[in-house]
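Troubleshooting: if your tokenizer reports a length mismatch, compare your output against this known-good record of 115 residues.
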Amino acid sequence: MELMDGGDNKLRDDTVSRFWLTEQGSNLGLGPLILKNTGSEKSKPNMVAETYEAILGTVYIDSSKDLVRLKLAIRKLGLGPHEFLKEAVRKEEALEMERQERERQEEEERRVESI
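Known-good structure output:
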């Protein structure tokens, strides 16, 4: 699934993603932990979503952009899978398999050339 299929799909995806981020952040109890301006009593849903997204982004960057590790961290935190993440992990795993296959073929070619 492409994230940029078109305007309507992008808007829908952003809305679904924002809702999911807010829901997951709320489930973790992030709302009360967010520092707010004086006079603000409650965290707005968008603040919760952005905080949760920042946590996921930090794990992703800290793991050297390893989507498999990010997926593991999400699972260990007890969070539900997100469709975009599932697709990204599948792509990452496919790329890794392709890389391993190329390495195997190159090794086989080197072995044949040395005979």
